[in-house]
Specification:
336 residues, 10-stranded mixed β-sheet, 2,3-Dihydroxybiphenyl 1,2-Dioxygenase, domain 1, 8-stranded mixed β-sheet, 2 domains
Length: 336
């Protein structure tokens, strides 16, 4: 087995999604899901725009928080000279298609969180993926007793509400909290559809340094109803950071092996996601990415403006299935 190429554990700083309107999306996430608005900024070209994939683009970024995690809403005001306009998500997208990605939002009370969405679901402002909230069955030891519901936000981005029973999930999801606190607690992971579990496990674990937990397989009527598919068999592999949210790979098996990544997808398209990961060893990751099925994306390694933690560099990277990451050099951590 190839040894890990990073010496310290990575940490997900944020997940970014491209939105038709950052303000509209912020209003939805804050009013309906309990996110908190943290900051906003205008990006006019330069390294930040280049690391989003649009070196001459004009972007509006609204940063939201939920618990300890951050979501960045990116509106492409102008993709720049020679760039086409952004496109909506394909209307027939499914959970098994390899451009699929979602955020898993942990709730202390799924029934209450689901009820908050009912007016928007009834009005067609958002759409349900799941037939109804589903409780995963007892035979599925790893997931038994978990309640889940999947839906799409106003732009079609996939989200999941999930309630862990006692004894499952990160211990922080079971901390005591004030009675008046909102039921949404934070983001557990971002899930991505992948074609080859072993290949993705090696990329995220051996190359990037996430901890790969044992894979499990979900199937049955509850999973069909959760995903809006038939005859589902999906191999799920949790990949965890030392703290905070992780990544979860979803390897759908026959008959639901999905379509490949959209080859002409661009950062201005609503199907575009970017996971921002603080990590060390960026030079070695860039040099070894191809051996793990990944690709270094333009502009390669870029120096960012120096901050309180010193100068940092960043690297835009695609995983073996085309899911995009932005690796940011962890402050104060030297490459191995």
């Amino acid at each position: 087995m190839t040894p890990p190429l990073v010496s310290s554990g990575p940490h997900i700083e944020a997940v970014a999604i491209t939105c038709a309107s950052a303000e509209r999306s912020a209003a939805f996430f804050c009013a309906s899901l309990g996110f908190i608005r943290l900051a906003e900024e205008r990006v006019e070209g330069g390294p930040q725009a280049a690391l989003f994939g649009l070196p001459q683009g004009r972007l509006q970024r609204v940063q939201l928080g939920l618990g300890e995690e951050r979501l960045d809403l990116i509106e492409v005001l102008d993709p720049g000279p020679g760039q086409r306009p952004g496109r909506p998500l394909p209307p027939d997208s499914r959970s098994c298609d390899l451009w699929f990605q979602h955020l898993c939002l942990v709730t202390a009370d799924l029934a209450a969180s689901h009820a908050r969405l009912q007016p928007l679901l009834a009005a067609g402002a958002i759409t349900a993926v799941s037939a109804a909230p589903q409780r995963l069955p007892e035979w599925n030891t790893a997931a038994a007793g978990i309640w889940a519901f999947k839906f799409r936000d106003p732009d079609g981005h996939n989200l999941e509400l999930l309630q862990f029973p006692d004894g499952k999930g990160d211990p922080r999801w079971h901390r005591s909290r004030p009675a008046a606190a909102d039921e949404l607690l934070g983001i557990d992971h971002s899930a991505i559809a992948i074609a080859d579990t072993a290949r993705s496990r090696a990329f995220y674990s051996n190359l990037l340094g996430l901890k790969a937990l044992p894979s499990g397989e979900n199937s049955g009527l509850e999973q069909d109803r959760l995903d809006g598919l038939s005859e589902v068999r999906v191999q799920i592999t949790p990949l965890r950071c030392a703290a905070g949210m992780g990544i979860e790979t979803l390897g759908y098996l026959t008959p639901n092996q999905g379509r490949p990544q959209l080859m002409d997808q661009a950062p201005q398209d609503l199907a575009h996601w970017q996971i921002r990961l603080a990590a060390s060893g960026l030079d070695r990751i860039a040099a070894s990415a191809a051996a793990f099925g990944g690709r270094v994306l333009p502009p390669g390694l870029v120096a960012l403006e120096a901050g309180a933690g010193g100068s940092r560099r960043a690297l835009r990277l695609a995983d073996p299935d085309g899911h995009e990451l932005l690796l940011v050099e962890a402050a104060g951590v030297s490459a191995p």
